[in-house]
Amino acid sequence: MSASKSKAGSGWNLLVDYGPLVAFFLAYRFIPHGNAIALIDAIMKSTGVFMAAILVAVAIAKWKLGHVTPMLWLSAVLVIGFGGLTIYFHDPRFIQIKVTLIYGLFAIILFGGLLAGRPMLKYLLQAAFDGLDETGWLKLSRNWAIFFTVMALVNEGLRASLDFGTWLTVKTWGVTAASLLFGAANVPMLMRHGLSAEVARDVEEPLPPQG
Description:
The protein is an all-alpha fold. The protein has helices at residues 3-30, 36-65, 70-89, 93-115, 120-124, 134-161, 164-185, 187-192, 197-201.
């Protein structure tokens, strides 16, 4: 793969991974919500934007990247499902609980694979990390299983203690930054287990932040 194609693919990956969440955040920020009724209306409309954006992300992944990862499919299903519940019941807790559920499901999948001696992240990412050996995949699955468990607990704490706007800001920027830093922290271990330097430069966190 040429450098230009790699950069183009990386750009589309960033759009697919981060676009829907940023669209959700921006829609909420720009829709007026000066009182309690307007606040609920803003949450409902921005949730609708989120649902539309995740569908666009899936379409872009299929069109520009040639495939939709299992993680993106699962994220899309949960965003649509819990977004629909949010709008139907006019209750923002559903879209917030969805985040905990995504992290919790991935933690269960990864821990379950580890118990069976199988690095499930390898299958969920469709072997995206070229050259990584089986031990590296197992360690990566273990590390992200722990991270997802912590993030599920953190989201529940944030959801219980913050208003919706503050929660969304922390989710969009704080949790995303934490995921990127955690992903970068794993790179030295991955390179010790066969990850190529070219792939290491493009390593991103494996869970799209629609979570």
